[in-house]
Amino acid sequence: MRSVGILTLGCKVNTYESEFVINELKKAGYEIKDFDDVCDVYIINTCTVTNSSDNKSKKMIRQAIKRNNQACVVAMGCFIAANPDYHEDGLDITIGNKDKSKIVELLDQYFKNKEQLQLQYTGRLKEFEDMYINNFPGRTRAFVKIQDGCDNFCSYCIIPFVRGKCRSKDEDKVVEEITDLVKNGYKEVVLTGIHTGSYGVDLDTSFAHLLNRLVNINGLERLRISSIETTELNEEVLDVLRNSNVLVDHLHIPIQAGSNEILKAMNRKYDLDYFFKKIEEIRSIRPEISISTDVIVGFPGESEELFQTTIDTCRKLEFSKLHVFPYSERKGTASSRMDNKLDNSIKKDRARRLIEVSHELETNYMSKYIGREIEVLVEEYKDGYSYGHTGNYLYAKINRKLPHNEIVKVKVKEISYPYVICE
Hints:
The chain is α/β, with parallel strands linked by helices.
């Protein structure tokens, strides 16, 4: 029996795809071990969203080769799609964002011929690669990939080039997969994709239509959207938010910049007026909803004044959390050809300052729940405390042992960042 260690970098889509690969390998008789162990096969599911992602991908490939130079080392995913000619002595199989589902077949071919395999593709990917998972060992929250690709072409982003066109999973297959996950004990499911809210653009359906079917699956208690663009929160989607409590009290809506000047340079599809009105509309439906966001700092041409505008915007919108990213230049994108690029020291300082704002906003949101009852999905128990998340993504620390994978009512006593302390 051959052993495999797999490492996943990057987004929830990669997490889902890696889990599918693990399941396929198990069915084929492979033993799944920790990536840090000595294995016969190493698989690195790479990321390329930033320069640090690229560096981490390369570092992990080299580590695997060094750990066992007799192993078959596989690199797949976005870094490989962006760098199809990437070579490293000891790297045996490279796969972009197509044919991950054929991992067993590719390994069989490699071990038969002992020849390197380098899968390359021309043009943007157009077909959805079907995958199905009915179990996520060790997790209380299941992911389901419903969509792949992006057609937005934001000026800073390489992902439309490495993930291809927007394409969607068959709606009946999504319903079937989530129904099976619920039957296997999962109370919460997270819908994930590269551009999740664009689901259905290539099919005779819509994201709202899919949501309406999913919230009515018997036994599903929580449905979470991993991320959605503000332009995709149309009336039909908001109606689901209005009419079903299965859709959780949390939305992750990337804003990316808090000034119209930078939003335009980024080729985002909205301005601040549109964004503010949409958030106001959402809160008219769910007044206490948690809204988190992504922000890029240090974009070309971002002055100190424009950065301060972003800080002011984030405070006014009262986000519950900011995911902050220093601008990372990606070769081949429109922003890589822009003037007025900023020094790394400036980007690093602005990221630090905005993370401080995030902590302030997070604490403000968490503090609203002191003295109140909340419902927590229990995820783990350690050192005398149970831990889990609420629907609106508060991270609860509870002073007793509670049943794993159960939703329990607890009372918030105080805040100890990043936890709400409960009893």
